[in-house]
Amino acid sequence: MRLLFIRHGDPDYEHDTLTEKGKVEAGLLADIIDTFGIDDVYQSPLGRARDTARYSLDVLGKEAVTFDWLREFPAEFDPNRSENVRRAYANELKTDPETGEYQKRIVWDILPSYLAEHPELFDANAWRESELVKTSDMLSKYDYVIASFDKFLEDNGYRREGLIYRAGQGNDKVIALFCHFGITAVLLSRLWNVSPFVTMQFLATAPTSVTEVVTEEREKGFVSFRTLRVGDITHLNMGDEKPSFSGRFCEKFENEHERH
Asked: 0.90 cut: is pTM over it?
């Protein structure tokens, strides 16, 4: 079985849809989508993912099933609960003008200086007990997502047992999931058996990029998921379309035109 995690096109976050560039990107992906041999399509409920999927669905002549757990990973840190952890997001914290309290924020855009002091975030088990996680709703959100993902895989013939999956009745399906970077990072952390902070901090995928994971059954019934490619943008290169910078930070601190 092959899983294709497809990030949405360049986003208009304010309106939860695509920018004009995002529409071009989604169209270029649709131009080659029938080469993937896709059997089933699933999508996030958020507009930017559904709008991206629609271009490809029209070409494939298929409809997508929507899963709530494929929405962008919604875990948030509460800065009001820890002065220490606030340092992890020091350059992005905002306060409510009426209450004066800090506004919650997504968990994964952590400053490197904080990460350097907290190696437990990269440990496959210790991240769960970290102060950052305990001052957020990440653990409950993460466990919900991976439980839903494991149920989805089991429905397709692969049951989680410890650190691997067992094949009941495997298949050769190609399954596309139109979703988001953050949720893809979480799902990959489950398949790789690593802390989600590893995938969140050390991967970046451009809008409409394709990440491909395939089952490998070297021993009868024992299955590993191997990642063949991460963030592939062949379709953008073919269309001479520069990938969007969305989701990335400045390559050099002096690059004022790039996100800091």
From this structure: yes
